[in-house]
Amino acid sequence: MMRPTSLAADPPGEGAAALRTLTAPVLVGVGEHDMPDFFEGGEGLARDLDAGETVVIPAAGHLAPLEQPAAFCTLLRDFVRRLPKQERTGAAKGADLR
């Protein structure tokens, strides 16, 4: 369910249409205890993207990276590791993905 204020920020739906053109893998993280609008919005976003994937970050709300930094970093690192090598070529030189 989208709030009226969310729709007002993107009245013609151009943002959603632009997101659907993405071809790169996308990881959408949602906090287990986030508000329903955001939780459902994250799941819907990943569903709308061809290469979208949703992960639920346990024991986190809306600020999951701040609330559960270790879990967030693990999910992000694992996602990047699963990418084909050519998808990772834009990474900063010397980035440690261990």
Automatic annotation (TrEMBL):
Source species, domain of life: Bacteria
Annotated InterPro entries: AB_hydrolase_fold
Protein name per the record: Alpha/beta hydrolase
